[in-house]
Amino acid sequence: MDYTKQRNNMVEHQIKARGITDERLLDALRKVERHLFIPGHSDHFAYSDGPMCIGEGQTISQPYIVALMLDMLKIKPEDIVLEIGTGSGYQTAIIAEIAGEVYSVERIPSLARNARKILDTLGYSNIKIQQGDGTIGWKPEKENEKDITFDAIIVSAAAPSIPEGLLTQLKEGGRLVLPCGSRFVQDLVCVRKENGNIIKENFGGCQFVPLIGEQGW
Ligand code: SAH
Question: What is the C-alpha separation between 215 and 142, in angstroms, rounded?
């Protein structure tokens, strides 16, 4: 079944209608087949305006939230992006469409495995997935990753505070977006690193599953 129409409607009514105008991002949302990332549901519901269960007690974010967070990051085609919380791999695919490279960390082994499988099947060659605790950032796998830093970092699970490890891996001039607050309700926060200073901007209420790890819950 072809869900092009559902995807175009999703972008028109859920994303553009709420003020997102970045055409590269909108094109990626029109292209990536969200229903392939949500097993066990009627495919049609994959394009509805809300979060959905992806197993292991985790959720795939509402399409608008994915769009909003990526819009806040102002990703450029050559950027190297770190994602914490691969989950289904849907957002990973969207980032791969608009950035140069994506490094993604997922704590739960089965989710990391499934995401890798679908993203490989879809032919993405600019995505690296690591299973582990993303609160401490990307664990170098090769010598040339030893002091790796990222143009943008996106955290898809709720943190009690901004993990230091992630700030260390953020490039000068880079941006980090994360939900920050209590275990049950948070604010979406955008952090910029400018001339060594950390500038925080608050974008209001949201609700994410908890970020569990050394610098999380
Ligand atoms: N963006 C994802 C949604 C992820 S839900 C999508 O498009 O599907 C949040 C994910 O963060 C869950 O899969 C959860 O297992 C993961 N997570 C929680 N704590 C983590 C940690 N410390 N490191 C990496 N992943 C973590």
Answer: 23
| Contacts for 117 with CB less than 8 Å, ≥ 6 apart | none
Residues in the chain: 217
For domain 3-206, the CATH superfamily is: Vaccinia Virus protein VP39 (3.40.50.150)
Task: Indicate which residues carry an active-site annotation.
Answer: 61
Q: Which of 107, 119, 127 to mutate to test the pocket of ligand 1 (most atoms within 8 A of CB)?
A: 107
Specify whether the CB–CB gap between 217 and 204 falls below 8 A.
Answer: no
Q: How far away, in angstroms, is 69 Cα from ligand 1 center?
A: 15
Domain ranges of the chain: 3-206
Q: How far is CA 60 from the centre of its chain?
A: 10
Which run of H or of E encompasses 181?
strand 170-181
Q: What is the mean pLDDT of each run of 10 residues along the chain (217 residues)?
A: 95 98 98 92 87 92 97 98 98 98 98 98 98 98 95 98 97 98 96 94 95 97
Cα gap 113→60, rounded to integer Å: 16
DSSP letter at 2? -
